[in-house]
Design brief:
About 10% of the residues lie in helices and about 35% in strands. It is mainly beta. It has 2 domains: about 300 residues, Macroglobulin (MG2) domain (Immunoglobulin-like, Sandwich), CATH 2.60.40; about 110 residues, Beta Complex (Ferric Hydroxamate Uptake Protein, Chain A, domain 1). A hairpin with a 6-residue loop joins strand 14 and strand 15. The termini are far apart.
């Protein structure tokens, strides 16, 4: 058998087994209940504040041999399930930490943090984690409506007595504003060293010590192969969807899909499975980036690309009580609002520069075999003339009435596979559309005269057009493609204040201290020094243990901050 024919057979065989093998791997998750747990610095916030959190992703049956999700999705929702905001956060060694910005316009009321992974979207929404929070808008009188009952989803209250192996102490029970607080945390030999410890200090009524640790509802994660739609995110943020024929609405299997992150000199390529579905693992970028997806050009078929929603939009039925504050909670809410207004007006926030999208010095395909700079040649009427009139390794040929690019080389593989055609590093499968670009808008053409493997797809070389203005030379990209503004990872760009930064700056901390990862020494001991707040009242020093299972343990003490008379 010739080498080229052998390569072709291996390639076709690999495409046929990858989707099935992937599904078999992901369905191994079916033997365990995946879940998430989340804890926050407080449970009462002012609109515009950041909710600080830590979380873990776990298997209820301790499946240590299964790779874990690297992304957790956290949303702020109303009890009816309407999303206020949300984000995706990176998980390292099953743990994640970060913050979620509450929109300034959020109405006063009861809300929930809804937390889940992409894989959990294949099961019931009752298996997600729901954490109740209360939000106060400082100037709006309206309140998010409630129904005054709790007859929907039920939660299991955690057993707080199990935290006997952790102790938290303070050097005093009462402090004056600005006084140094000596706090110690110690653990016994029975403490699980793999568990993460967090410490938060906040006003007592801003932390719900009884309902702040809701568990995942005990709902089995039963997923059938035919219903599998979302794969675990082993590598990072992902994007998935379906390719359909536009007229009939039928799924198109075995079709190439290209994805480009605009600004990157790279593309991603995958194929659709038997149901027309595709899946991309994306880079660990932060913020929003523009993506372009396109399907390969199919003869006599127009296609449509449908992208799965980043967030779960299925309805939920959560407890929706009437919003109510007792007298202590009203006093705390007033303190929170006053401090927040002071922070906005007087606190000098450090603005961190967001990481830019990486810019590569060279393209993903490396050094090209040939570079054609159009300014070095006599102006020709069309791009096709450059290929046909100049001594180039690529020519334009017609096959069944349609124009195609073809490398002329002695390598047999190059005659089997179609070349990858790029415009400003975006894959375009329509040669006629490419050749319609005005030559005056093109800076150069780079050619790679060798087979190139991208993902699980083999190309017969690369033809890359680079425009002068990086604007695709003014042409419309394929109608089989789609632009989307995609939300990558969230970035916590401001850490909470844990001390007073200057004598001339008012102390307006609502969370006095938050550390989601307390480090203990070899003796299981840690000591923290915190400046007592200027706002007097009762405060809680709350330490939580988050092991790699479906249980958070906590212990707390109370202190007083009093203004000296």
């Amino acid at each position: 058998m010739k080498k080229s024919h052998l390569l072709f057979c291996i390639f076709i065989w690999s495409l046929s087994i990858v989707p099935q093998g992937m599904k078999s791997q992901e369905l191994s998750y079916n033997s365990a209940l995946e879940g998430v747990l989340v804890s926050t610095d407080r449970n009462m916030y002012v609109s515009g504040e950041k909710i600080m959190f830590s979380s873990n992703v776990f298997f209820s049956h301790n499946h240590t041999d299964i790779e874990m999700n690297r992304i957790i999705i956290i949303e702020l929702i109303t009890p009816e399930g309407n999303r206020v905001t949300g984000g995706k956060f990176l998980v390292e060694n099953q743990y994640s930490m970060g913050c979620l910005q509450i929109p300034e316009e959020t109405t006063t009321g009861n809300y929930y943090l809804k937390s889940y992974t992409r894989w959990m979207r294949n099961g019931s929404t009752e298996g997600y984690n729901y954490l109740p929070v209360r939000i106060i808008h400082p100037s709006r009188a309206e309140i998010l409506s409630g129904k005054g009952h709790f007859d929907s989803l039920k939660f299991d209250a955690p057993d707080f007595e199990k935290i006997k192996d952790i102790e938290i102490l303070s050097d005093k029970s009462a402090y004056s504003p600005g006084e140094k607080m000596q706090i110690s945390i110690s653990c016994s030999g029975k403490f699980d060293s793999s568990a993460k410890l967090s410490l938060t200090i906040a006003q007592k009524s801003s932390i719900d010590l009884k309902n702040s640790l809701e568990k995942n509802a005990d709902v089995p994660l039963i997923i059938k192969a035919e219903n599998l739609q979302y794969f675990p995110e082993f590598k990072g943020v992902s994007l998935s969807g379906k390719l359909l024929e536009k007229v009939s609405g039928k799924a198109l299997a075995g079709t190439k899909i290209n994805l480009s992150v605009l600004g990157d000199k790279d593309i991603m390529v995958t194929g659709t499975d038997s149901l027309g579905r595709f899946f991309f693992s994306l880079p660990d970028y932060f913020g929003h980036h523009d993506l372009f997806l396109s399907a390969e050009n199919l003869t006599d078929r127009s296609t449509e690309i449908f992208i799965d929603n980043d967030f779960c939009i299925r309805p939920v039925n959560l407890p929706n009580p009437l919003f109510h504050l007792n007298e202590d909670e009203k006093a705390t809410a007033l303190n929170l609002v006053v401090n927040y207004i002071i922070q906005k007006r007087f606190q000098k926030l450090t603005i961190e520069e967001k990481p830019e999208t990486p810019v590569y010095n060279t393209s993903f395909y490396g050094e090209p075999s040939e570079v054609l700079k159009l300014e070095n040649f006599v102006d020709l009427p069309s791009l096709e003339d450059y290929f046909n009139e100049l001594p180039m390794m690529v020519k334009v040929r017609k096959i069944k009435g349609k124009k195609h690019f073809k490398f002329y080389t002695t390598q047999g593989e190059m005659s089997i596979f179609e070349p990858l055609v790029l415009i400003d590093w975006v894959a375009v499968n329509d040669a006629e559309r490419v050749l319609a670009m005005p030559p005056r808008e093109i800076e150069r053409i780079e050619l790679l005269n060798a087979p190139y493997v991208k993902g699980n797809v083999v190309y017969g070389g690369i033809i890359s057009f680079i425009s002068k203005k990086n604007d695709f030379a003014g042409i419309d990209l394929p109608t089989s493609g789609t632009f989307i503004r995609y939300r990558f990872l969230e970035e916590c760009d401001q850490k909470p204040v844990n001390d007073i930064s200057g004598k001339h700056q008012p102390d307006a901390r609502n969370t006095i201290y938050w550390n989601p990862e307390i480090i203990l020494n070899e003796s299981g001991y840690a000591e923290i020094v915190v400046t007592a707040p200027e706002t007097s009242g009762c405060y809680v020093l709350l330490v939580r243990s988050m092991p790699l299972n479906n249980e958070i343990k906590q212990r707390w003490i109370e202190i007083e901050v009093k203004v000296s008379k």
